[in-house]
Specification:
alpha+beta, SKP1/BTB/POZ_sf, four-stranded antiparallel beta sheet, five-stranded antiparallel beta sheet, 13 helices, repeat, RCC1 and BTB domain containing protein 2, BTB/POZ_dom, about 550 residues
């Protein structure tokens, strides 16, 4: 995509403050396309890239190192060998056994992927030879690109709209694809069918970072200089002009400034310096330069985010949005924000720049390959849930219907007024319980650990009895909710009877309305035939008042 996928900061950077927000695991579910995946599938995601003109395609890897794709499959960009869309994840078997190091995408879209072994694979849209395989045929399956790269290890990839850039481990840059504005850096405007090394001013330089805008290319070298080439109609090359540049040219205005990384938007550019400062230039119609206005800038202009050091800048060639993260963990955004123009850096509530593009960018794509680290940390609530009915840590057990339920005295006293008094001076480690059934009492104790219940409507009636007896009003409401969700013609009278017995007026009214709405069937059930005389009398009287027996 726009730029690069590896966070190559270079130089020494002070460690990021480990705040609670900075430790949160990235939530891939914030990208709408992932709503097609189940919760179980999302838990397995370890890497992901969301792309496409509407953010409707995604490639992701799992904890098992399998690669899956999902979405509209425009021009075969899912690499499955066809152009059929899919709303269910399909495994990309042609890359089986390959581990992804970095990945980028174009506007077609086309995909450029580098493995941890340094190999390059491409597929998707290819009308401008952006796949680098020597043809202009769309690639329906991943193709290994080795021409001029056979002895090279690729460590970073970047895509413009229809051209591709890769960086090798020895600091060389190769480009191919669309070249109408000189974005290949070859000195001409002829499209490049296979990888070609970018030379000129970069000939004897060691590049450490690359990025692509819509139709321009950039590289940061190990001395901190920035070299640019390609389209410059909005001043996105930072050369002080608007003329295209067919070969790499150093940005002279950054003389004396050591740049560590560059990020390109659709037609604007951001750089991060070794001192944690940000400069921006290029198109500014949405305020994406963060200068407080919407005037384009053809020279690098400082962006004032906050006094804290910036450690990351983010942009994407398909969007007019910018983002930055500070050493303190604050994330700022500016530019296009869901149709609005934000002209100054705005502090968000996010902990990651990735979230900015999921929630604010149009389309909702990823600006780099997402990396999702597993979060093994348990919250206090999660830890308590795991300890319920655990004989290894319990100091109290309830004997109900001949079976034990294991619990912890201190938690019961904290959570329940009944236990606070009954266990206050008790040294017993076994409590026999005969008033309630095992399923009901176990559900009650589990509720004290989890704040939730999972019972059938019939068992929830018994728990409603217990909740009434122990004066647990919240539990009483949960029971009523469970009963409402599970009511049917067969059990409606029984549930109505329970509601009356336990003085659950809201539930009583609900059950009564259900019986009236299904009167013909309900009156033919065994429950209605066995109905308590007084309850039946009251039911008929109330039903007649609401017109249930009118012809």
């Amino acid at each position: 995509m726009e730029e690069d996928f590896l966070l190559l900061y270079g130089g020494s950077v002070k460690p990021v403050q480990a705040t609670l927000s900075s430790l949160k695991m990235l939530d891939v579910g914030k990208w709408p396309i992932f709503s097609l995946c189940s919760e179980e599938e999302l838990q397995l995601v370890r890497q992901a890239c969301v792309f496409g003109s509407a953010g409707n395609e995604v490639l992701y890897t799992t904890v098992n190192d399998e690669i899956f794709v999902l979405g509209t499959n425009c021009c075969g960009c899912l690499g499955l060998g066809d152009v059929q869309s899919t709303i269910e994840p399909r495994r990309l078997d042609s890359l089986s056994g390959k581990k992804i190091a970095c990945l980028s995408y174009g506007s077609g879209p086309h995909i450029v992927l580098a493995t941890t072994e340094g190999e390059v694979f491409t597929w998707g849209h290819n009308a401008y030879s952006q796949l680098g395989n020597g043809t202009t045929n769309h690639g329906l399956v991943p193709c290994h690109i080795s021409t001029n790269l056979s002895n090279k290890q690729v460590i970073e990839v970047a895509c413009g709209s229809y051209h591709s850039l890769v960086l090798t481990s020895d600091g060389e840059v190769f480009a191919w694809g669309y070249n109408n504005s000189g974005q290949i850096g070859s000195g001409s405007t002829a499209n490049q069918l296979i990888p070609r090394r970018v030379t000129g001013c970069l000939q004897n330089k060691t590049a450490v970072n690359i990025a692509c805008g819509q139709m321009c290319s950039m590289a940061v070298v190990d001395t901190g200089e920035v070299y640019v080439w390609g389209y410059n109609g909005n001043g996105q090359l930072g050369l002080g002009s608007s003329g295209n540049q067919p070969t790499p040219c150093r940005i002279a205005a950054l003389q004396g400034i050591c740049v560590q990384r560059v990020a390109c938007g659709y037609a604007h550019t951001l750089v991060l310096t070794d001192e944690g400062q940000v400069y921006a230039w290029g198109a500014n119609s949405y305020g994406q330069l963060g200068t407080g206005n919407k005037s384009n800038q053809s020279y690098p202009t400082p962006v004032v985010v906050e006094k804290d050091r910036i450690i990351e800048v983010a942009a994407c060639h398909s969007a007019h949005t910018s983002a930055a993260k500070t050493q303190g963990g604050h994330v700022y955004m500016w530019g296009q924000c869901r149709g609005q123009s934000v002209t100054l850096p705005h502090l968000t509530h996010f902990s990651s720049t990735d979230d900015v593009f999921a929630c604010f960018a149009t389309p909702a794509v990823t600006w780099r390959l997402l990396s999702v680290e597993p979060d093994d940390h348990l919250t206090v609530a999660e830890s308590l849930k795991r300890e319920f009915d655990n004989p290894d840590t319990a100091d109290l057990k309830f004997l109900v219907d001949g079976k034990y339920i294991y619990a912890h005295k201190v938690l019961l006293k904290i959570r329940c007024e009944h236990f606070r008094s009954s266990l206050e001076d008790s040294e017993d480690d076994i409590v026999e319980m005969s008033e309630f059934s095992y399923p009901v009492y176990r559900a009650f104790l589990e509720y004290l650990y989890t704040d939730s219940i999972s019972l059938s409507p019939e068992e929830a009636v018994g728990l409603l009895d217990l909740a009434t007896f122990y004066r647990e009003n919240r539990l009483k409401k949960l029971c009523q909710q469970t009963i409402k969700q599970g009511i049917c013609e067969e059990n409606a009278i029984a549930l109505l009877s329970a509601a009356v017995k336990y003085d659950a007026q809201d539930l009583e009214e609900f059950c009564f309305r259900f019986c009236i709405n299904h009167l013909t069937v309900v009156t033919q059930t065994a429950g209605f035939a066995e109905m308590d005389h007084d309850l039946l009398k009251n039911f008929i009287s109330k039903a007649s008042r609401v017109g249930a027996f009118k012809n």
